[in-house]
Amino acid sequence: MTHEILPCSALILVDIQPDFMSGGPLACEQADAIVAPVQAILAQDRFAQYVATQDWHPAGHISFASTHDGGKPFDNIELYGHPQVLWPDHCVQGTTGAALHSAINWDRMNLILRKGTDAAVDSYSAFRENYNCAEQRPQTGLAGWLKERQVRNVYICGLARDVCVLWSAQDARAAGFNTYVIWDATAPVTGKTDDATRRRMQKQGIRILHSSEFCPAP
Ligand code: VGL
Ligand code: ZN
Question: Which among 67, 103, 134, 137 is least surrounded, fewest beta carbons within 10 Å?
Fold first, then answer.
């Protein structure tokens, strides 16, 4: 593969923020290893559109264990009739842990989409919020934004492989995009989920790539 522009294609960088990196309150396994492949992919500048998402919660967010009496991080509860994991406090609006990661060049992004801003609703996917009190998953508008720009193929990198990347990929596919996940440019909250994540993606027709296939050495 040469370094030609990928027509009708968007790169989506999901939640590459210090709170999900090593030492952060919700550190993904080997998260720091995604930085080099993400930088390499960006350096090629092959995409028509670039989107970043930023997890951006108000203090006291419903997804935080600390918001619930007796709640412990990684507990599973039911919220609005659907399962919800309780997380350590993370990506609180305006904190340094919520910033976009300083090792990535964000200049090329056409859109930076903040999500999880509603105190009462979690939002894993770049495309739709989690279930709300009306048991609906409101759209973020990203599918329309991409379609209005003639995007048909989306390539997803970022964090976490088993949470926001997975949900974003599933919703991208459901919205009709040809969907690719660049596996080594993602890292999971826990690697125990990797087999299940891979199976789920494959079952839905999400294609899994390695950055070396995508950016071969020149
Ligand atoms: C994420 C858990 C909570 C993610 C965000 O970016 O995958 N995970 N909030
Ligand atoms: Zn979050």
Answer: 134
Distance CA 216, CA 218 (A): 6
CA angle at residue 65 from 64 to 70, to 5 degrees?
150
For the stretch 67-104, pLDDT in tens is: 999 999 999 999 999 999 999 999 999 999 999 999 99
Under the banding of pLDDT at 50, 70 and 90, the label for residue 213 is confident
The alpha-helical segments, DSSP class H, found in 148-193 are 166-174
Range 31-56 average pLDDT: 96
Q: How many residues does the chain have?
A: 218
Cα of 7 vs centre of ligand 2, distance in Å, is 32
- The domains of the chain, with CATH numbers, are 9-60+88-213 (3.40.50.850)
The backbone torsions φ and ψ at residue 160, rounded to the nearest 5 degrees and listed phi first, read -95, 145
Mutation probe of ligand 1 site: the residue of 16, 21, 55 with most atoms within 8 A of C-beta? 55
Is 216 a residue whose pLDDT tops 60? Answer: no
Burial class from Cβ neighbours inside 10 Å (0-12, 13-18, 19+) for residue 205 reads exposed
Instruction: Report which of 2, 1, 10, 6 is spatially closest to residue 169, judged by C-alpha positions.
Output: 10
